[in-house]
Amino acid sequence: MKKKPTSPKMRAQAQRRAPARKPPVATRKDTFLTDTINNKKRSDGWVNILQGLGTSKDSRTAAYVDWKPMTEHDIEYTYAGAAMAKKVVDLPVEEAMQDGYKWTGITTEQEKTLIERLEQLRFDNTIIEGAVKGRLYGGSGILKAYNDDLRLELPKTREDNREIKALVVFNRFELYTTWEDVNKDMLSPDFGKPLLYTFLGRGASAATAGNLKIHASRLVRFDGAWLPDRLRQSNSYWNDSVLNRPYDAIRNYANAHDSVNAAVKDLSVAVFKIKGLADDMASNCDEKVISRLEMVNLAKSIARAVVVDSEGEDFEYKARNLTGASELVDHAEGRLSAEVDIPQTILFGTSPKGGIGQSGEHELNNWYSFVENLQKKMLAPAMLEIAKEVCDELKIPSQKLGIEFNPLWSLSEKEEAEMRHKNASTDQIYLQEGVLAADEVRTSRFGGAKYSMETTLDKGVDLTKLKPGEDPELEAQLRAKKPPTKDA
Q: How much is the pTM?
């Protein structure tokens, strides 16, 4: 056994021979902070070894974020069984489509012909179904079935001039993609996206489905909640269901309401005190105790009073305290509203907490912005893709075809009058300064089917030099335009 140095000189020599002890430090490695003492890592930005902050002694380091895709079974049962889950999926799409839309870039007669053909294809219902399934399952596709479709794996070109026979919606579990069927051309705008889909319908076997390929050009795709590239690739190149992230919030909302309802049922509990109850139970006198309870209950039912022995028995009601339950339910509702981007006034049909005021208007403005974004990025591209093919089928020029959704809200009579007054004052300034002509103002405001705030300038196009069909919208406006009067 090695002896410890006793004299000061020997201790000094031992200290010089011993390796220097390194102080505990925290170093950054690969964007993680490493605790060199306990060899523990965490992804936060602060570590204090002395206080245990950010080390294995800190309970926060055990918390982490995990993600896993919902199965088809979980998605369908959640949607069918939870009313709030159905509203989260359906409500934005219904709000986006309920006020209608109109086609632009074509004449009135051409628009009428296009609408009639789209109605035959159940266009609006198919778009709603595709968008809802895209949000619900994390993705969907509308198959454009042509009248002579024999080779679905071949791309569809606009020069084929084939008629669309039907529009069929499939969810992402019926259309899957492998790495072999992904576009690998780095110069293509669709690089990294599926080029072919393998169809696996209900009841189809894997062997049969492997032989049925559908080219991406024949599908109009809808996506759900966006996923990072690696997760999307592992999810068969589809995005996530909009129910996955707020799943806990939906469950907590239902549990909060169910818990309050269960507590209300037991809001008042009857307490019956019997002398010698413990002894009777120990002596197996259960029938005696049960018989006494039945007599008390029967007497209460007949006489609406409880008759007890004056000595040794007592009967009273104990009330349960539900203070704070309302606040807990409000917190559950607030979290759910925040996670699904739907204000409480729309999701729950209730006024904002604190009354209807600026906060309520702010929530509605955010909601309308959310719906308009859904119209612009999800619905409009899909609707235009199908409509342009139908226009080609009907020999209608589709180069300038566009779609314009009707406003999600309308002004009151007072607000509209104030808006027109302000607009008229602005027009008067433009007329006095020579910025606009009177006929331009008149045509812009009152030349259409309804009053418009948009100002359209006279392009000065000569009708004799305008080729037929070159610009149908401009041609119709110029022919319908009345010449300005002398007073103007």
A: 0.69
